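Shape is hard to put into words, and the shape of a protein is harder than most. The fold becomes a row of whole numbers, each drawn from a learned catalogue of backbone shapes. The outcome of that step, for a single protein, is printed below.
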Amino acid sequence: MDRIGDIEKNYFKCTHCQTEYITACIDPSLRKKQLKVKKLYQQLKMLKGEKEIIKKVNQINDLEAEIKADMAELKERLNH
């Protein structure tokens, strides 16, 4: 793991060619979103009604998709 300013870059290097492969990039905004997903999962455990559960699962899925897109964008910026 390396830090570039406030960005945490996780990666591994190929043992044969020494090419660096980034596995994840996380900035403060992404950390907040990840924490929110964690809290949503905790809330999900407490729900009983089907409609409430579906709504919470949809919130989680939307936020996880947003996190994935943000990470890909951040990774792309660091690769160039």
